[in-house]
Structure formats: structure tokens, C-alpha cells
Specification:
Elements (H helix, E strand, L loop, with lengths): L26 E6 L5 H11 L7 E7 L4 E7 L2 H4 L2 H5 L5 E7 L14 E5 L2 E8 L5 H8 L7 H12 L9 H9 L8 E5 L4 E5 L8 E4 L4 E4 L3 H5 L3 E5 L5 E5 L2 E5 L9 E2 L1 H6 L5 E2 L2 E2 H15 L6 E4 L5 H11 L2 E2 L3 E3 L12 H4 L2 H5 E3 L1 H4 L3 E6 L8 H10 L4 E6 L21 H4 L2 H8 L3 E4 L2 H8 L6 E2 L1 H4 L18
Parallel strand pairs: 14-24, 17-18, 17-21, 21-22, 22-23
Antiparallel strand pairs: 1-4, 1-10, 2-3, 2-4, 5-6, 6-7, 7-8, 8-12, 9-10, 9-11, 12-13, 15-16, 19-20
Helix pairs in contact: 4-5, 5-6, 9-10, 9-17
Bound molecules: iron/sulfur cluster (SF4).
The site of iron/sulfur cluster has 11 residues, from helix 18.
Length: 483
């Protein structure tokens, strides 16, 4: 078999978030479908997962004999062409869109990660962050791995038994090595002939199983099934590993049982509104957040204005409950992504205008309730408030459809530095004064839980409550290029 295809190494653009949001998680996709052009289907699946990572994209494909990998920095549409897709042959593929939670985006850190030891190649796509990378590197050796994803790939490849070739080599290697991984990981992994998908015992990041006419797909979000004509079968359970090949789907549970803890921010901000999480539609949950926010924190105002786009469903819910008129007061430039050329410091001051522009006719001489889903660092929310006032609003009442974000995330978000979190340093009155709003209110944690409408409290809320589901020690376990 041939090694992974290589392409020129390209320095990527620096991280460049023009809005004050936590960085998205990554997107993973996998497909096993005999007779299909798996790489092409993975390409479409990655389009649906583009919002989860815009720094790099990649696909590994296999025809049963040879694995080929193509990856690069940039958006899915920039990375792949007809030529590169045509070179990715076979009925089996895994794909990835990446947002680096730390470090700069580089070709080396793009995924799928690939290792070949003896005759077996392993390609891996990962969403999450491991929290025991130092131990893992000590046990398996890092072989120059710069990301936790590469470390996992190395550990899996080294665990393949070259003396047993019954088609279950990857499955056995993963069953052996998975219990040594700690932290957040939703994975799509393949060798030449098999697809394996796994969620960590807490299930911090989503991963679902779907069915196509010819086979099976797994994806970070169910919205990726629609675009490839697949139907949703079920979520991969927290702590479950499924192996997929010609004999069907085999389910394993290689971890000790743990409490499920899906990231609540998938509901608040990360996931697409047309995805399902625990069977709950994300759009419906966001509308319910707005309903409850209006009950908890009414405002004496004239209009409701959402911060597009993830603030829109909550603003609709707030409007429906409060009876205040919903208007579009901010227009989003849909073509500014993370690959936008880094602005000069002077332009960065006005950075928010590159993404959002006010509609004066909606705002002038009005008392405005501005609805957003979260404030993380507060860096651009203040600019946003000033912009709305400059467009003629007489009052600005800010309503946030999640509780204050006070604690760092170690499970795949880019907020591991507590000093940068606005609500970790200030109380609500101080934040309101800093943002120069007439009033400020956040949704309560209880209100957020009610809005998700999921029984049994299976959600992680650590960044809102400080209650971490795992031991995070000193938090210094994140490799330079964690994903
Ligand atoms: S700490 Fe917050 S952002 Fe991180 S997984 Fe938990 S809920 Fe999600």
C-alpha cells in the first residue's frame, strides 16, 4: 500500500475571530458504503460541518487496499478540487474540519492524522481535547506528535497486532488502547477496510450514526446526514465504540461507565440549528432559551434585535413571549470567515464592522433589546453596543441566552485561559458598566436546562458552574495543536 499522500506545507492564517465567541469544536465525518465514491460524499458532509472548523480540512479514503490522505489549511471549498477528490478512491473515508483550540493552524496539525506501522495504516479524525497527553506520550512515545490527535493515532497504530490478520486488527487495537485516553474525544478512525467511531465515556462532543442506501455514515452533527442522503439512526452513546465493515455494525463499550456530559454549548452556540442533539432539535432549544429569558428578565423597550446568526432563535423566542416586535437590526456579511486576511491593528478596532453592519431604519429612536447567545471575552460586545447606539438606538438592553461564562473549558473549546473570561473578573453590574448598556441579564442555569428539555441532566456545564466532570489537574495538558 502507499503511504499518505503529501502536499506542500503551507503556513496558515492566524486565528482571527472577529466576534466574541468561543472557538468552534472540530467536525468529523466517516463513511463506509460499498460501491460509492466515499471521498465525494465525505466532501459534502464536511460542507455541512464547516461551521465547526474553518482553519483546515482533510479527507482520507481507501479502496480496501490503499489509504490516500489529502489535507490543507483553508475552507473545505478551498482545500479540495475536482482533481484532488478524484485521487481519493474507494468506498471508505473519514473527513475533518479543524478549529485549533490552541496554537496556530498549520498543515502538520490538519487532519485526518495518519500513521502506518507494518502493513496497517490508521487515519483518524478527532473532535475534542485529551486531558492526559503527558501520560500517553510517556506510555506510547510521541514520535514527534504535536497534537493530541496524532498521539492517539500513534497509540492506535502501535497497538495493532501484525500477527493477527482476520480483519479485526483495528477494532482490537482500539479496544485495547481506548481505556488509556482521558478527556473529550469523538473519533472517526479507519484502516484500509474498516471504519470505527467512538465517543469518550462522558460524550462531551456529539457523534451520530446514519444509514445510506449502500452503507453507514457517522458525523459530528445530524445535519451532515441530510446532505449525503443518509437517514439518522441514533446517537453513538457516550463510551460506545462502533466498528463498521462488510458484516455490518458491531457495538462495544470499552470504558468503565461514566455520567454522560454532552457540552451544553452545543445547544447554545456550536451546533447547527437543524441538527438533533439527544433527539432534541437545536433550533427549538434556542427558541425556548429566548422564551425563558423573557420570563426571567423582561425589558421595557420597543424592539427585539438579534445578534446574527446564533442569537436569532433566542430573539424570536424572547419576542414571542414578551410581545415586543422582532426586527432585523444587524446585517451579517456572510462571506467573512476565519480565513479572512488579518486586519491591521487600526482596522481591528473596527473589526466587528467587517462582520456586522447596523440597519439604521430598524434602530433609530428605538429602545432596543439586543439578544445574543453568549459573552466570552467581551472584546467585541462593547463595540457592538456602541455601533447600535451610533445607529440611533436610544437605549440598549442586552439579554444573553446562556449564563455567565466564568470557567475555562478543557474539553475542546478555545477558552482555557480564565484571565480572558469577562465574567470571571467582573460581576453583572460591572459587566453592564463595562459594556455601556442600560441593562444586562443572563439566562439562569436552571432556565438553560429547562430549555434543552432533556431529562436526567446529561450535560456538561463546567464553564458556567465550575463543576468539571473529570479531573483537570493544573490544566496544563493541552498540546500546542490540540483540536
Ligand atoms: S466546559 Fe463548557 S464549553 Fe467546555 S464542554 Fe463543558 S459546557 Fe462545553
Amino acid at each position: 500500500m502507499s503511504p499518505a499522500a503529501t502536499i506542500p506545507r503551507v503556513a496558515g492564517p492566524p486565528p482571527n475571530s472577529l466576534l466574541d465567541k468561543p472557538g468552534e469544536a472540530c467536525g468529523v465525518f466517516g463513511i463506509y458504503a460499498p460501491g460509492s465514491d466515499a471521498a465525494r460524499l465525505a466532501y459534502f458532509g464536511l460542507f455541512a460541518l464547516q461551521h465547526r472548523g474553518q482553519e483546515s480540512a482533510g479527507i482520507a479514503a481507501s479502496d480496501g487496499e490503499t489509504i490516500t490522505v489529502y489535507k490543507d489549511v483553508g475552507l473545505v471549498a478551498q482545500v479540495f478540487s475536482e482533481n484532488t477528490l478524484s485521487a481519493l478512491n474507494g468506498h471508505l473515508a473519514v473527513g475533518h474540519t479543524r478549529y485549533s483550540t490552541t496554537g496556530s493552524p498549520t498543515w502538520d496539525n490538519a487532519q485526518p492524522a495518519y500513521r502506518q506501522i507494518v502493513g496497517t495504516g490508521v487515519a483518524l479524525a478527532h473532535n475534542g481535547n485529551l486531558t492526559n497527553t503527558r501520560n500517553l506520550a510517556g506510555t506510547f512515545g510521541d514520535q514527534g506528535a504535536t497534537t493530541d490527535s496524532e498521539l492517539m493515532t500513534e497509540a492506535i497504530a502501535r497497538s495493532v497486532d501484525p500477527n493477527r490478520s482476520d480483519g479485526r486488527e483495528l477494532e482490537r487495537a482500539m479496544l485495547a488502547v481506548l481505556p488509556s485516553f482521558e478527556g473529550a474525544f469523538s473519533l472517526a478512525v479507519m484502516d484500509q477496510g474498516h471504519l470505527v467511531a467512538v465517543r469518550d465515556p462522558h460524550g462531551f462532543r456529539p457523534l451520530s450514526l446514519g444509514r445510506t442506501e449502500r452503507g453507514w455514515v457517522v458525523a459530528s452533527e445530524t445535519a451532515a446526514f441530510d446532505i449525503v442522503g443518509a437517514t439518522f439512526v441514533r446517537d453513538i452513546e457516550p463510551g460506545e465504540m462502533v466498528a463498521i465493515d462488510a458484516s455490518g455494525v458491531r457495538s462495544h463499550h470499552p470504558f468503565p461507565k461514566a455520567e454522560p456530559r454532552l457540552c451544553v454549548f452545543e445547544f447554545v452556540y456550536f451546533a447547527r440549528p437543524d441538527s438533533l442533539l439527544y433527539g432534541r432539535d437545536v433550533h427549538g432549544a434556542r427558541r425556548a432559551m429566548g422564551h425563558i429569558l423573557a420570563e426571567e428578565a423582561p425589558a421595557d423597550a420597543d424592539v427585539i434585535v438579534p445578534v446574527p446568526e446564533s442569537g436569532i432563535p433566542a430573539a424570536q423566542g424572547y419576542s414571542a413571549t414578551s410581545g415586543l416586535r422582532y426586527v432585523d437590526g444587524l446585517v451579517k456579511n456572510r462571506y467573512v470567515g476565519r480565513t479572512f486576511i488579518d486586519p491591521t491593528p487600526a482596522l481591528r478596532e473596527r473589526g466587528i464592522r467587517m462582520k456586522l453592519n447596523p440597519l439604521r431604519s430598524s434602530l433609530e429612536d428605538r429602545r432596543v433589546v439586543l439578544v445574543d447567545d453568549s459573552i466570552v471575552r467581551g472584546t467585541t460586545t462593547r463595540q457592538l453596543v456602541t455601533m447600535v447606539r451610533d445607529a440611533g438606538a436610544t437605549e440598549v438592553h442586552l439579554r444573553i441566552s446562556s449564563p455567565p461564562y466564568r470557567w475555562p473549558c478543557f474539553y475542546g473549546m478555545d477558552t482555557s485561559d480564565r484571565d480572558s473570561l469577562l465574567a470571571a473578573k467582573m460581576d453583572i453590574d460591572e459587566i453592564a458598566a463595562f459594556l455601556e448598556v442600560d441593562s444586562l441579564a443572563y439566562l439562569s442555569l436552571d432556565g438553560l436546562m429547562r430549555a434543552t428539555a432533556i431529562a436526567g441532566n446529561p450535560l456538561c456545564t463546567a464553564c458556567l458552574s465550575g463543576e468539571y466532570p473529570t479531573d483537570v489537574g493544573d490544566g496544563k495538558f493541552v498540546l500546542e495543536g490540540s483540536s
